[in-house]
Amino acid sequence: MQQLMLKFLYVVALLRYPGIRRDLRYFIRDNYYARLNQIRFLWADYFVKKPYKVIDYHGEFDQELRYVLPFAYWHHLNGTLKKTISCTNTREFYFFSENHSETYEKRVWQAGYGYYEVPNMTHSPTFSYTKFAQVPFKRHYKNDLFTYGKPILVIANKYNIEWDKPPINFLGIPELDRIISSYKQKYQIIYNRPLSSQIVLDNSEIMDLNEHDWIRKQHPEVILMHDLHEQYRAKVNNFNHLQLLVYANTDWFISMHGGTAALASYFGGTNLILSHPGGGMEHHFNEYATIFPALSGAKILHAKNTNEVFRYLNEHY
Q: What top-level branch of life does the organism fall under (predicted)?
């Protein structure tokens, strides 16, 4: 029955989006099926309204942020959330869950495929916000610990394998030097590029950009998230907890394609995302204008190359 329904929904996607690439219709089909799957829970969600929903996910971090967390928080608000299950060091993301289990030690990107338990489960030109609630990270984690004399600007960089190719979406040392030199007087810049020892990995191998020591020497005014982690180990539970605390006090972000961009979109303010065409599906479905701002109401600026990064910085920062 499921296979027949998926075939039918592929035809629906073809008829509704005849101009879209054939392989992209599978994403649309899967999202249609995921939304229809929610009909099974109509009585439990809207009439019985007792805790029953167990949300179990260990796929890509990006998908968890964009789709799973807002779904889990909706169930929390609805009174129907029973338990959440995810990876190591995710308890702080699920602060609202009274029963959260950190079962998985590694993310498996394939786990996101065929996962129809969440209404929005993959890329799509449209999303359902019926069972979608903004997770109030900013309100919950706002603090007096990470405050400075100037507003914070977080540069959330990355440097890892993308789609089995060398790094594509990242800021190199020349770009970092230009940004830091231009904006360190106006902002307290905090630089964040997690190491493999600080987060749970999926299929994206983290590589060495050799920028941390360079920043310490050339721009000592910049605060490194690594250094904050060492300094506040006794006050934070893990690196994810630290990110949430720092980001909650921030209104200005520069982030990279993927989970880095999704996390920075959770805190309102302005998030400038570098995402080159040719890799992720976000471009094909215009998702930087839909699901990303929906996460918190943040203003999303999508730069397709480093020249656009500097143009947006000049116009908005």
A: Bacteria
